[in-house]
Every structure is written in structure tokens, then in C-alpha cells.
Amino acid sequence: MDGSDDTSYLIHYGVRGMRWGIRRSKERTDTRSADVVRVDAAKKLIRKHGTKSLSNADLQAVVNRMNLERQYTSLKPNLVNPNTVKTVNSILNVVGKKRVKDIALKGITKAVKIALL
């Protein structure tokens, strides 16, 4: 090789949008039920072409699914957002530490006054 051969090295630019250390899965499995897949496809058609693009059965399936989801959310208890819990815990932690510091300072001040008298 005299150095004039430009094909003696490998060029690899990677896959566009891929992150370092993240591998694509070989097989992507859809864990959604067939009803959800069908309703999502129907919702996409509604967004693109309106409700007139669906048959009565498809539109009924979308409405039934939306009603079921609404009923389910009204039945399950309202769960507290984890971010809210973290925020409240951090505020209570700061306030608690400040209160303990104030009480300790008062105790030390009182002890010093008694010792000096």
C-alpha cells in the first residue's frame, strides 16, 4: 500500500438519532390490546379526516373506549403525584432542620447564661 488507496479505512457515522450506549431492541413488542390499537388508529383517522371517515362500528368503539377510560379514572382513587410528595418532603425537611437549629440555639444560649451567672 503506497497511501494512494483511499478505501483502506472504515468510516462509520452511526445511526441518526441513536444515543451512545443505547441499543435498539431487535424485536419491538406491542403490549397494547387489540381494542386499544384499533381505537388509536380510529382516533388518528378522526384527527386527520374527521368523524365522517369512520364507520358506525368504529366510531362506537372509540366512544365506548373513551367512556370506559373516563369511568375507570372516576372509580380509582386520586393518587398523589410523586413530584408533589418530593417537594413537600424537601420543604418539611428544611423547615424541620431550621426549627431544630433554633431550639438548640435557645438551649445553648440559656445554658451559657446560667453558667456565667
Descriptive report:
Helix 1 packs across helix 2 (56-75). The chain starts with 33 loop residues before the first helix and ends with a helix. The mean pLDDT is 83. The chain is built from three helices and no strands. It folds into two domains: 32-79, no CATH class; 80-117. The chain has 117 residues and is an all-alpha fold. The chain is flat and about 90 Å long.
Question: Could you write a compact summary of the structure shown?
Answer:
This protein is mainly α.
Using brief descriptors, characterize the structure shown:
117 residues; mainly alpha; 2 domains
Q: Uncertain spans, ≥5 residues at pLDDT below 50?
A: none
Radius of gyration, in angstroms, nearest whole number:
32 Å
Tell me what portion of residues adopts beta-strand conformation. Answer: under 5%
Helix fraction bin: 55-70%
The biggest beta sheet reads: none
Number of domains: 2
Mean pLDDT: 83
Quickly count the helices: 3
Content-based structural category: mainly alpha
H and E order: HHH
Q: Which descriptor suits the 3D outline?
A: flat
**First CA to last CA: what distance?**
96 Å
